[in-house]
Amino acid sequence: MAVIRHTTLVLVLTLIAGLSWAGGIEVREFDDPVLEQRYKSLTASLRCPLCENQAIDDSDAPISGDMREQVYVMLQDGRADIEILDHMTTRFGDYVLYNPRLEGRTLLLWGLPGTLVVLGGVLVVVIVRRRRNASAQALSAEERARLDELINRERTP
Amino acid sequence: MLIKMIPEIGHFALVIALLLAIVQGTMPLVGAATRRPLWMAFARPMAAGQFLFVAIAYACLTASYMLDDFSVANVANNSNSMLPWYYKFSAVWGNHEGSVLLWSLMLAGWGFAASRFSKDLPEDMVSRVLGVMGLVCVGFLLFILATSNPFERLLPNMPSDGADLNPLLQDFGLIIHPPMLYMGYVGFSVVFAFAIAALLGGRLDAAWTRWARPWTNLAWAFLTVGIALGSWWAYYELGWGGWWFWDPVENASLLPWLTGTALMHSLAVTEKRGSFKSWTVLLAITTFSLSLLGTFLVRSGVLTSVHAFANDPSRGFFILMLLTVTVGVSLLIFALRAPRVSHTVGFNWVSRDALLLINNILLVIITVTVLLGTVYPLLLDALGFGKISVGPPYFNALFVPLTVLMCVFMGLGPGARWKSMSARDLGRRVALSGVAALVLGAVLPLIFAEQWNLWVAIGLITALWIVLPMFRDLFDKTRNASSFGAGLKKLSLAYWGMQLGHLGVAVTIVGVAVVSHYNVERSVRMGPGDSVQVAGYEFTMTNLQARRGPNFLADTATIEVSRLGSERSFEMRPEKRLYIARGMPMTQVALRPGFFRDLYVAMGEELDGDDWAMRIQYKPFVRWLWLGALLMGAGGILAIADRRYRRRKTAEAPAPAAQEAHA
Amino acid sequence: MNRRLLLLLPLLIFLVLGVFLYRGLSLDPFHRDSALLAREFPNFDMVTLEDPERRVDPSLFQGEVTLVNVWGEWCPACKQEMPQLLDLADRGVRLVGVNYRDTRDKGLGFLEEFGNPFEVNIFDPDGTLGFDLGVYGAPETFLVDRDGVIRYHHTGYIDPSDVRDHILPEVEKWQ
């Protein structure tokens, strides 16, 4: 049942949105280039709530137009980025943030890559240390010199 | 009569192919396990037969498209009698059913190729490799026949004309992008089969890696070019000039590329030094698994994406089962059969081995990061923590620094020696390049642009740090030869392939860094006679007219463009189209490509009067990012041509140390 | 022993991922709870569709459980769900409409053609109330309790089973 409803919904939404590409081409005036830059980065980091997976700056959906307008108006009002983002999330939920906030449920998302870099560093140290010992044990100095020579001959053909 | 039966013939051919694949997936494996040469001998003929019958099925579907047989549901839903013939041809893979059939065709094709180019391999190895590939084929053919039959008929109520191919897909880029991409995805099945065969046969020496390396390079080259084509297609077709969106479907193709890249390097270590054996096997399994995972993500509808196929949970379930069985069993075999005692092949802190170890670890971390970001919304949703989105800001914030970090080591790699060298020696080799990269990279943005940008500088430094040591290395390598030319000739193709691949990475980095930060974009209102200046160019709309295409209506603007202060001008014609059959509006971008910059004009909505909203963009160095990918692909293929792989008589498992001497 | 466990690790990671993917198959990526759940109905001061002179504000919802339906003449699914809304009205549920991104003529014509289950319709031609409600495509439906707090949200077409299984029980619950 859920599937059928889902399909209907998609169908309806598609009709409304007209499956739009290359949207959001609008003429907007900015007195201040900094403001224009902020507008661009804000509209690029807000997700269109209706579309499949598009930022509002890329989408033709009416709601994206409304959201862009809201961003523009609030910027002209001198509001801070965080206020504008909050304004959107209180209405459309955290779903519209392409840059997820750091909070309890996103700890893993933001924390894992850094943790892995640290662990990876430790792993490299452990492995290389072991391998160094291995090579020290496995070969006498003489053998090692001979092998190095063999390898280096390959390096300079 | 026979023509009317084409879809049935195709369907029947698929059934036969399935039967052959079942034989291919069982007899040779059992034969290899029980040492029965007769059973093992089934492998090659079955691989050929299966390929033949999948090809027949594929030809039948193509014929149905070409002949406008709208009684076939797949044709009726995705084609139209007005469609030009070449789009009918490519429409076959512009939908779920047809693309899975193409996927299967390629899988069977790679299997067939593996059976042809394996004359020098031990018979049991060939049997196992083809057996494993046969089993994968069984899975996909079953998937087609059970859930995605492209030959389903709409009888007796067949439509008089088709619903047309999605206009986004009516494009040259789409003719070639999916086949390339699939060749890459599917191509990794060969190295996967080699790895499983090596595990099953208990032959985890360096030999299998030597056989598998050319196949891996080839698949990787296809995937690289396939991804680049997809990016290029999105760039000119979607109309907003983006070339990478961190969409789940894009990420799905990036994941096997990342592990595939790690795999190429780890195969090198295993072949040359005999170490990292289990790791290499695991990477081979992971890479193909990620290809399958990508298929699942694209076709199951668990993630929202702009590119996903029409979603159907029953298909999703089937692919998930396929994925679970394939990957689960492979990883189980890995856990049971991988050597429990790690080999003690030693190397030192300063050595190519250590650098490649770091390369692999970083690539895996990048892979995990991309995968995490891609599935994280799904994880939270499944746990009931609500809906969030993970998009470009997240990926850029992590991917870019991780990549830069990796490139730091990448610059050192080619100049480093295997096993051990003194830090002083390595330092001497790269010191000059390092200083030059820092200075040039920091200064160049100042020369070419008005504003200095930190990220562009970092990008350029990184790229130069990869490229400059190459020249030093070339110099070192030719020093002992009689002349520079003679020295160059002596270098192996594998060496050139590596350098070309690395050069490609640097070129792509330059493109990404420059276009991301020096892109100029302006949205303007324009009517006939209006002109506007963007990034040193003057754009004047000289004409605006309506025209009729084969299956669309269009408003076309003619825009005259000239460089400020220059007499020469050229025309650009962006279009806004309405595709009749689907009533779908589309923006046809006007592009003026160049080696150092693209000009990009897209038409938006009609405003009051004769005015239109237009988006004009100046995109410096954007071509470089695809050019780099082409260089990478070329590098991968060049390395295959190396003598080493053609001299197959010596392939019979020499000891690692002996290999090093003559490699 | 240690190493054997390590070799099993990839399989374990994959199986965990597999469980989530399996779970994902039965989740609807399009379904999202409204950000306004358990919050007060956003403030507004607007005229009604029926009478351009009459102004309404959130006091409209005080004291009675109300189903607020966001609709527009241009929206095909809104037409399809009208019988279900009329049925709800027949069962005594109080309905208030938000005529979203529409013109007055078209909106009134729609009600004439497909029936009018609404006690009153808030006229929202620019979609400002819709925006504050987080509406991104009609139809959307909100249940507001007697204190004016949003308690339930439905996105898209309402079919008869939705009325039976979700909407009526929710109305009952907050009554």
From TrEMBL, chain A:
InterPro entries: C-type_cytochrome_biogenesis, CcmH/CycL/Ccl2/NrfF_N, CcmH/CycL/NrfF/Ccl2_sf. GO terms for cellular component: plasma membrane. The keyword Metal-binding applies. Residues 12-150 form the CcmH/CycL/Ccl2/NrfF N-terminal domain. The chain crosses the membrane at residues 107-128. Keywords: Cytochrome c-type biogenesis, Heme, Iron, Membrane, Metal-binding, Signal, Transmembrane, Transmembrane helix. Possible subunit of a heme lyase. This is Cytochrome c-type biogenesis protein.
UniProtKB/TrEMBL annotation, chain B:
It is found in: Cell inner membrane. GO terms for biological process: cytochrome complex assembly. Keywords: Cell inner membrane, Cell membrane, Cytochrome c-type biogenesis, Membrane, Transmembrane, Transmembrane helix. The chain crosses the membrane at residues 12-34, 46-67, 100-117, 129-148, 182-202, 214-234, 254-270, 279-297, 317-336, 357-379, 399-418, 430-448, 454-472, 493-518, 621-641. One of its GO terms (molecular function) is heme binding. Residues 320-643 form the Cytochrome c-type biogenesis protein CcmF C-terminal domain. It comes from the Bacteria. Residues 93-300 form the Cytochrome c assembly protein domain. InterPro entries: CcmF_C, Cyt_c_assembly, Cyt_c_biogenesis, Cyt_c_biogenesis_CcmF. GO terms for cellular component: plasma membrane. The keyword Membrane applies. It is a multi-pass membrane protein. Required for the biogenesis of c-type cytochromes. Possible subunit of a heme lyase. Belongs to the CcmF/CycK/Ccl1/NrfE/CcsA family. NCBIfam families: nrfE, PRK10369.1. PANTHER family: CYTOCHROME C ASSEMBLY PROTEIN-RELATED, CYTOCHROME C-TYPE BIOGENESIS PROTEIN CCMF. This is Cytochrome c-type biogenesis protein CcmF. It comes from Franzmannia pantelleriensis.
Automatic annotation (TrEMBL), chain C:
Keywords: Cytochrome c-type biogenesis, Disulfide bond, Redox-active center. Residues 35-172 form the Thioredoxin domain. This is Cytochrome c biogenesis protein CcmG, thiol:disulfide interchange protein DsbE. It is a single-pass membrane protein. Gene3D superfamilies: Glutaredoxin (3.40.30.10). It is found in: Cell inner membrane. The keyword Lipid biosynthesis does not apply. GO terms for cellular component: outer membrane-bounded periplasmic space; plasma membrane. InterPro entries: Periplasmic_diS_OxRdtase_DsbE, Redoxin, Thioredoxin-like_sf, Thioredoxin_CS, Thioredoxin_domain, Thioredoxin_ResA/DsbE_sf. It comes from Franzmannia pantelleriensis. GO terms for biological process: cytochrome complex assembly. CDD domains: TlpA_like_DsbE.
